[in-house]
User: What shape does this take?
Amino acid sequence: MQKVIYNISLYLSFLKISLKEILIYRIDCIVGIFSQLIVQLVSLVFMFVVFQNTENIAGWNFQQILLLFGITRISIGISGYCFDGLYDIGPKYIKSGEFDKILLRPVHPLISIIGNSREFVSIADFILGLVLTIVMLVQLAIPVTILLIIKILFFSIVGALIIGAINTIFSISSFWTYRSNEVIWSFYRMYTFTEYPITIYNKFIRILITIILPFAFVAYYPTMAYLGLNTYIIYLSPVVAVVLWFVAVKLWNLALNKYRSTGN
Amino acid sequence: MLKTMMQLAKMQFNQYNIYKSNFYLFTLNRIVEVIVYIFVWQAIYSQTGNAGGFTLSQMVTYYILAIAFSSIATWGINETMAHSIRTGQINKELLNPLTYFQYYFGMNLGELAFAVVIGIATFIICAIFWELALPVSFLNFILCIFIIILGIPITFFIQMIVGTIGFYTNSIWGMQIFRKAVIQIFSGIVAPISLFPLWFQELSKFLPFKELIYTPINIWLGQVDYSEILFVIIKQIIWGAVLYIIAKKFFNHAIKNITTNGG
Assistant: This one.
């Protein structure tokens, strides 16, 4: 347990250094954030078009769907910022042989790698999510209590951890293909399924996003709790996050033992 | 010259094809993207009995074709070009016996060939899961393909313009995303143009993007008159010519003023 806490604190100090590195490139940062907002615009345009044809989707109205979108974006923003380094394992570290250097450090390689994350454009996701969430909470006349704010903060971080764990599991593929980024990206994209009520999907996809890749716990179940539709299932989220991280780290260590350097 | 360009195209295609996983992953990506759209419209259809004026099978076909065509509309050589500007490799490329435009057009064709392969694979896999409307006639099918081919120079010249901006800014990463988002919204990948507000429809009539996705699909579904198709063809040729002139002028202007980053 002590080791886990030590590793987490180490990771946070790595992250702090990364943040300082970002702030060097101000212009790139601003352009990136602006572009990321435009990408989100594409999803929002689809929602606007859809809701011109219907009052609700599976019982959720426009404001509720936007709240779900906002809550999702907060988690995506946090996870994008904190775990982006995973995308680099294959192309940046293993392919070039730099991974050997990281193995020599007296730190678990996973900590070094995710500590090196600096996907600043995620800040755009986070801000957009925050703004949408606040506006929609007001519009839906949900009383914004301190408890709710703490809940949203806590479960957004838990959601980000769930995404991080799933990405970590898929990053294992980089030990074989060196192209982890595309593998992670392909599965990570499935979080978009949970931007709509999952009851619209068929059984297969519902099982996929609640049990196999539990993206539904990132934002969907928490949002249901905030809306008062289902108050209990939200408390499963932290359990899911812990279990997933346990599995992810175990699998990662297992794969690490099989690692063979590419030389260089 | 044509032979060299074809060779370049083949080279670029093979670069993707080295990793077989690329093919599976890109196809998976497309399918993941289309699933959300289809299920949302299915939900709306089951509630209201209407999917934005389309029948359900037409709507499903629309999105599957849109996603299948989308890589052709949005992929390109922007990244490669930006990279060559950043690293100074452009020095060598400018000395090629091919002009810079021909060189990149060849590469672009290779990229698009891979996009076509992905598109076909996506279409076939989706056809297993959902019932698709086939093209209303063979002529419509040919016209649909023809309109898409007419779009290739247009997307290419837009990329050259965006790429040329890289001479001034050194980084076109943001512009790239912007270009993709504009194409995604205005071409009808996100939703059929007919479902957008009227002012948007009017605007998209003048822009060349609608013809990358929306019009070819509607030709496939048999909802466009032949006289209108003729108009569309003329419009696309004019846009191609205009964008060619702009891209060429802009590039020639930029090339005189560049400072390259070593070599």
In short: Chain B has a mean pLDDT of 87. The radius of gyration of chain B is 19 Å.
